[in-house]
């Protein structure tokens, strides 16, 4: 990894961001796998993925994180009956590292991205996440 942060350190920052979530919310998170990936697939935009993005002045976008699953607000009474595939939060190390000025900024960007994707788990849309400063 770049920025002087090892993969293990990066994953620890992701874990620390999860630990910063208030306990009453953290206790409601169930059946979610949080994974760190180096890069999103090159065709993420063509796939129609809508995740936490950073758009550069030149119009180029980087996908920083992605929540895939059924938000808590959309789960019916029978969700999980018979076993449900875990929801997934993917955090993409390469793009986060590229947009960060230094290690402190990288930690901030990781934290914001984790909170952003957890917000999607709770059914919060991008507009509201931006209002809350998690966009």
TrEMBL record:
| Signal peptide segment | none
Specify whether Membrane is a keyword of the entry: no
In terms of superkingdom, the source organism counts as Bacteria
Matches recorded under InterPro entries = Zincin_1, Zincin_1_sf
Under CDD domains, the record lists: MMP_ACEL2062
Keyword list (alphabetical) reads: Hydrolase, Metalloprotease, Protease
Instruction: Write down the Pfam families for this protein, in alphabetical order.
Output: Zincin_1
Name this polypeptide is given = Predicted Zn-dependent protease, minimal metalloprotease (MMP)-like domain
Organism of derivation = Branchiibius hedensis
């Amino acid at each position: 990894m770049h920025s002087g942060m090892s993969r293990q350190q990066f994953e620890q920052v992701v874990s620390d961001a999860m630990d910063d979530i208030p306990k009453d919310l953290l206790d409601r998170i169930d059946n979610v796998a949080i994974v760190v990936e180096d890069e999103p697939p090159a065709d993420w935009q063509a796939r129609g993925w809508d995740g936490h993005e950073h758009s550069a002045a030149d119009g180029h976008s980087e996908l920083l994180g992605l929540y895939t699953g059924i938000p808590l607000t959309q789960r019916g009474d029978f969700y999980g009956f018979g076993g449900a595939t875990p929801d997934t939060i993917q955090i993409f190390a390469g793009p986060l590292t590229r947009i960060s000025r230094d290690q402190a900024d990288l930690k901030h960007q990781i934290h914001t991205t984790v909170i952003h994707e957890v917000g999607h788990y709770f059914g919060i849309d991008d507009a509201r996440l931006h209002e809350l400063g998690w966009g």
